[in-house]
Amino acid sequence: MAKICDSIASLPGVNRVLIVDDGSVPPVTREGLPVGVRLVRLPSNYGIGLCNHVAIDYFLSGRADVLVRIDADGQHPTHEIPRLAEAVRGDECDLAIGVRTNAGAATGIRSLAARAVRAYIRLIARLLTDGRVPGDINSGFYAMNRSAAATFAEWPLERYPEPEMMIIASLRKLRILGVPIEQGERLHGRSTITVGRAFQLLLRFNALAINLLIDRLR
């Protein structure tokens, strides 16, 4: 964690680093973290949706113009943060998504199942938004401006919120830009998406899709 923070804090234009510890075991501590890094420790594992809300509220309470979100497992290339941030800061878009060019490189039954789930979610999302969502709808590496953050702040984001965020952004006419990136190997921890949680993800996504479809047909 300290190494990731160091690599982010040293990037040009970065003036705040916030860590949201979502009930990690053992918990993240301040030991070894760079000076100035903020740490919010949640009492239990609530999921990425709540973590996003914590970060968005923190962002909107300050004066920064761009919020960049990355995972703490080391897969997201921190050196690409300026490229995503500049796309937003330069007014090319409201939301810049790190589209993984090597997302389908892994093999094995679990990886094949994950690709099938992602393909299904992407298909439904494209149908709901007339094809306006980015190619990698499950990417957790993205940058947003204050307008996008205010939009997401009004929505009760789920445990794995990336697909619904992309759909919401598209339906709210936010400008979305896909930025090709190469995802690295996982350096810390393991995926929290078990078979049970994958099933829950699909159920919640289908419920969201049905509600949005009903709204469009009204």
Structure in words:
The chain has 218 residues and is of the alpha/beta class. The protein has a single domain, classed as Spore Coat Polysaccharide Biosynthesis Protein SpsA, Chain A. 42% of the residues lie in helices and 13% in strands. It has a 4-stranded mixed beta sheet, with helices on both faces. The longest helix is centred in the C-terminal third of the chain and has 23 residues.
In CATH terms, the superfamily is Spore Coat Polysaccharide Biosynthesis Protein SpsA, Chain A
**What is the CATH topology descriptor?**
Spore Coat Polysaccharide Biosynthesis Protein SpsA, Chain A
Number of domain units: 1
CATH architecture: Alpha-Beta Complex
Q: What is the distance, rounded to the nearest whole angstrom, between the alpha carbons of the first and last residues?
A: 47 Å
Query: How helix-rich are the residues, as a percent range?
Result: 40-55%
CATH class: Alpha Beta
Major pleated sheet? 4 strands, mixed
What low-confidence regions span 5 or more consecutive residues with pLDDT below 50? Answer: none
Query: Can you count the beta strands?
Result: 6
Shape: globular
Order of helices and strands: HEEHEHEHEHHEH
Number of helices: 7
Secondary structure class reads: alpha/beta
> What does the average pLDDT come to?
89
Computed over alpha carbons, the radius of gyration is 17 Å
